[in-house]
Amino acid sequence: MLDIRKADDRGRANHGWLQSRHTFSFGNYRDPRQQGFSDLLVINDDRVAPAQGFGTHGHRDMEIFSYVLEGALEHKDSMGTGSVIRPGDVQIMSAGTGVRHSEFNHSAQEPVHFLQIWLMTNEPGALPRYQEARFDEAGKRGRLRLIIAPDGTGGTNGTNGTNGTAGKEGTDGALAVRQDARVYAGLFDGAEAATLELGPDRHAYVHVARGSLDVNGERLAEGDGARIRNAGSLRLSGGDGAEVLVFDLRPNELPGL
Fold first, then answer.
1. Residue at 40 is within a domain
2. Looking at the predicted structure, is the pLDDT value of residue 21 above 90?
3. Does residue 90 sit in the same domain as residue 153?
4. What is the pLDDT of residue 157?
5. Where does residue 257 rank: exposed (0-12), middle (13-18), buried (19+ CB within 10 A)?
6. Angle at CA 183, nearest 5°, toward 177 and 186?
7. Is residue 4 part of a domain?
8. Interval 154-206: pLDDT, tens
9. Cα separation of 80 and 118, whole Å?
10. Structural domain includes residue 129
11. Rounded distance, CA 51 to CA 234, Å?
12. Which of 1, 119, 191, 197 is the most buried (most CB within 10 A)?
């Protein structure tokens, strides 16, 4: 059974230069029913105006990753990292003992649209680190591509593609996260479909970044999300310009438990 979180029910923030939708409680948006899920604490759907962004600020003991949908996002941090990421790129910052960073729209003409996602760490007090990688469209087309895994290791047996052939996702360039969590990204249209075997006693969260598709027979539209408990497997199909993130998570209800 899917516990669906509709896009229009998310929190809203309008700062002029920033339009944001909050899946879970964040900033001035507070909903006691939406305090995260398992180790997933934040999914913010952010649109930043040209040449604007988040000034330098700090974090500790949090796994923070950005997934760009449109435009270009410029990152700088106190570890000396500087980078510009675009659609297909993923960055993850493990804040550890503390890091300061800024995130700006790299363009002076075009907006940037990206997802900012926070996962709880299982290694508090670790050294900060930054990683990024590119996951091209071909690798996500009609399948779920592993993009984040515990320390970059491990995978989940699954069925990917329209022909139903079974495969095993390995590390294959997945970024490392300090948590028992895996994140997959996929693109689906028409007959393209994929099945992800979660295994027993796992939770999952599905977030539709754009388009629409069926998840275990339930239709999800752009911005929708779904909590999934003890389903065993997920079947994604019937995509209409769909881009989706799937989180394979510990069987906890709330972050920090």
1. yes
2. yes
3. no
4. 31
5. exposed
6. 145
7. no
8. 433 333 333 232 223 345 789 999 999 999 999 999 999 999 999 888 999 99
9. 21
10. yes
11. 40
12. 119
**pLDDT, position 151:** 80
Q: What is the mean pLDDT of residues 90-118?
A: 95
The verdict on 197 and 226 lying in the same domain is: yes
How do strand 144-150 and strand 175-177 relate by DSSP bridges? Answer: parallel
What the block records as the tokens of 122 is: 């299982």
Average pLDDT, the chain: 91
Tokens (6 digits) for 216: 């275990």
Angle at 45 between CA 39 and CA 48, to 5 degrees: 135
Amino acid of residue 33: R
Q: Which residues, other chains included, contact 156 with Cβ-Cβ below 8 Å and sequence gap of 6+?
A: 146, 168, 169, 182, 196, 197, 198, 199, 248
Residue positions counted in the chain: 257
Summarised one tens digit per residue, pLDDT across range 59-91 is 999 999 999 999 999 999 999 999 999 999 999
The residue out of 116, 134, 152 marking a domain boundary is 134
Residue 153 to residue 136: CA distance in whole angstroms: 20
For 151, residues 6+ apart whose C-beta sits below 8 A from its C-beta are: 176, 177, 178
- The first and second tokens of residue 77, run together, are 């941090």
Same domain, 240 and 179: yes
| Unique residue bearing structure tokens 């979660």 | 198
The CA distances from residue 191 to 72, 138, 139, 197, 216, in Å, are 31, 16, 17, 20, 15
CA distance 60 to 58: 7
Q: Whole-model pTM?
A: 0.92
Burial annotation 53-77 (CB, 10 A radius, 16+ → b, else e): beeeeebebbbbbbbbbebbbbbeb
